[in-house]
TrEMBL record:
This is M48 family metallopeptidase. Pfam families: YgjP-like. InterPro entries: UTP_pyrophosphatase-like, YgjP-like_metallopeptidase. Residues 23-230 form the YgjP-like metallopeptidase domain. Signal peptide: none annotated. Gene3D superfamilies: Metalloproteases ('zincins'), catalytic domain.
Length: 238
């Protein structure tokens, strides 16, 4: 089993060589294992080139991140439904009030969605209120996950922003780390893994052994967390 690295994610894949194939094809099953089917005359470099070309498809299949700009209306946001937050699901209670727009609140044990009396059933507006709450919460809480790692790495003046990222959970640029707001849905240990991964890039640009050793000093069980994100990342939806 070989491995293909995409940002925080390591995707294991197996190559099936076939004399009957003329092109290289990819498939992914429900366990999120990747299979590469290739003609016998293809080289490993040929396979790696196809993986690079199909990187967006791999990430979209794993995480569904391509849908985030206009997420599907899988929920109706009715009382009794549950919303994911920090890896746990909390019950939603919907109430009506004299408010201009839906507003989501959280008391630590349950969510309350207050909707306008004049239009209580507008699912799209309710969804937007939920997304807006998550974005505000992520902008406040996710950067805090970096504090201990910054100290351990001896880093200063690091900007950490929370935004919508296309097809990735985090992104490193010199002096700056960007995190996808949907990470606030994940367990805190998964949030920490992504943060530690991006901060390790301040020490090592490439995903070298030295890079992963640095990640390991911050998150010793990073392999388990990395695997969780690969297999369950597509569950982190609103």
């Amino acid at each position: 089993m070989r491995e293909y690295h995409i940002g925080q994610t390591v995707v294991p894949y197996e190559i099936e060589w076939s004399p009957d194939r003329s092109t290289i094809g990819l498939s992914m099953d429900g366990s999120m294992d990747l299979t590469v089917r290739a003609p016998v005359e293809a080289s490993l470099d040929d396979v790696e080139e196809v993986l690079a070309d199909k990187k967006q498809w791999i990430l979209e299949t794993l995480y569904g991140l391509a849908e985030q700009d206009d997420p599907p209306l899988d929920k109706e946001y009715l009382s009794g439904e549950k919303l994911l937050y920090n890896g746990r699901r909390y019950r939603l209670q919907v109430s009506e009030a004299a408010v201009p727009e839906p507003e989501l609140r959280f008391d630590g044990t349950r969510f309350e969605l207050v909707v306008p009396e004049s239009d209580p059933g507008n699912t799209r507006r309710k969804q937007q209120a939920v997304v807006d709450w998550y974005i505000r919460e992520a902008a406040e809480k996710l950067p805090e996950r970096a504090n201990s790692y910054l100290e351990k790495l001896g880093l200063n003046d690091v900007e950490i922003e929370v935004k919508t990222l296309r097809r990735r959970w985090g992104e490193y640029r010199p002096g700056k780390v960007s995190l996808h707001w949907r990470l606030i849905l994940a367990p805190r240990k998964i949030q920490d893994y992504v943060v530690a991964h991006e901060l390790a890039h301040f020490k090592h640009d490439e995903h070298s052994d030295a890079f992963w050793n640095t990640v390991g000093t911050l998150v010793p069980d990073y392999r388990d967390r990395r695997e969780w994100l690969r297999v369950k990342g597509n569950t982190l939806t609103v």
